[in-house]
Write a structure and sequence with these properties.
Number of domains: 1
Largest sheet: 8 strands, mixed
Order of helices and strands: EHEHEHEHEHEHHEEH
Strand content: 5-15%
Radius of gyration: 17 Å
Number of helices: 8
Shape: globular
CATH topology: Rossmann fold
CATH class: Alpha Beta
Bound molecules: NADP nicotinamide-adenine-dinucleotide phosphate
Strand order of the largest sheet: 3-2-1-4-5-6-7-8
Structural class: alpha/beta
Helix content: 25-40%
């Protein structure tokens, strides 16, 4: 356990899902939440990497209330199968950390014809959260964490070309997907008002992780990131577990400081269009 990300809360009795928990800040988050006593559900697309992460979480935390579920967030049937498997086993969900993310140099489409970055980085969060929403609302003071990025500031969502059919650029698609994370967070916060469930988004900092390494079509790296994943995971651990943010919802945290995100991220009409289109693209998954 590193010295910088100290436990801030007791999570005994809480059930947490951390997506993208095979490496980087997702793995560190899972380890820290497990160390605070939570039951941790790791989510991975690759079984070997998932099992290795699970073993690391158990060893590092000494908490064997940890399990692995498989999900490839580019596949809607896979998201449905993962959330159903979770619901079969658990009766509560206290913390959902939407963290899995990627980027691709080349414009790729999922089996359902959705541009891959939008599918994994935005629809992955959108569908997972919506499919687990009833359970989150039934769990007192539950929290949804959305791992976005300050690169959302460079994002621009064109409602007529959300899939980047024209003029695709991997970095642009990534920035746009992170803007989508914020539009989603703010609209979901409005929907959840009064429910007891909170949702907040964050920029974790610029961190040296394996980001993009397992995606053959990505050369996005964060080599400029001098921050270790142990330090970089602090914001999502804070938003997941700290009593300081209890009841706070619909906010953007740059690392651990609450601040305003880009002007476009507060565009409610754009958020409505994105929501509507996301419902259409996920109509097979969300009934
Ligand atoms: N690093 C930074 O400086 C930085 C800055 C801003 C925001 N972020 C955000 O932080 C989050 C975590 O990134 P990281 O830097 O920790 O990178 P990372 O080490 O590459 O972690 C990304 C995680 O997402 C998983 N993932 C990717 N595509 C997936 C898919 N289709 N289905 C299931 N899982 C998938 C990866 O699984 P595999 O092991 O199978 O690849 C991995 O566990 C991302 O949302 C990223 O956008 C990072």
């Amino acid at each position: 356990m590193n010295q910088e990300a100290k436990p801030v809360n007791n999570l005994h009795g809480k059930v947490c899902i951390v997506t993208g928990s095979t490496s980087g800040i997702g793995l560190v988050t899972a380890k820290n939440l497990a160390q605070m006593g939570a039951t941790i559900v790791l989510v991975a697309r690759d079984e070997a990497r998932g099992k290795s992460a699970l073993a690391e979480v158990i060893e590092c935390s000494g908490n064997d209330n940890a399990e692995l579920l498989m999900c490839d967030f580019s596949s809607q049937p896979s998201i449905v199968a993962f959330t159903e498997a979770f619901k079969r086993k658990h009766t509560q969900l206290d913390i959902l950390v939407n963290n899995a993310g990627m980027m691709s140099n080349e414009r790729l489409e999922t089996d359902s014809g959705i541009e891959l970055t939008f599918a994994v980085n935005h629809l992955g969060y959108f569908i997972t959260t919506n499919l687990l929403l009833d359970m989150l609302k039934e769990s007192p003071a539950s929290r949804i964490i959305v791992v976005a990025s300050d690169l959302h500031q460079q994002g621009k969502i064109d409602p007529n070309d959300i899939m980047h059919k024209h003029d695709y650029h991997g970095f642009t698609a990534y920035c746009d997907s992170k803007l989508a994370n914020l539009l989603f967070t703010y609209k979901m916060a409005a929907i959840l008002q009064g429910s007891g469930t909170t949702i907040n988004a964050l920029h974790p900092g610029v961190i040296k992780t394996k980001f993009g390494i397992n995606d053959r079509n990505s050369d996005m790296r964060f080599p400029m990131g001098r921050v270790s994943p142990e330090v970089g995971a602090k914001a999502q651990i804070y938003l997941s577990a700290s009593p300081e943010v209890q009841g706070i919802s619909g906010k953007y945290f740059n690392e651990m400081c609450m601040e305003r995100s880009s002007a476009m991220s507060y565009d409610e009409a754009l958020a409505d269009v994105l929501w509507q289109k996301s419902m259409e693209y996920s109509s097979m998954s969300i009934k």
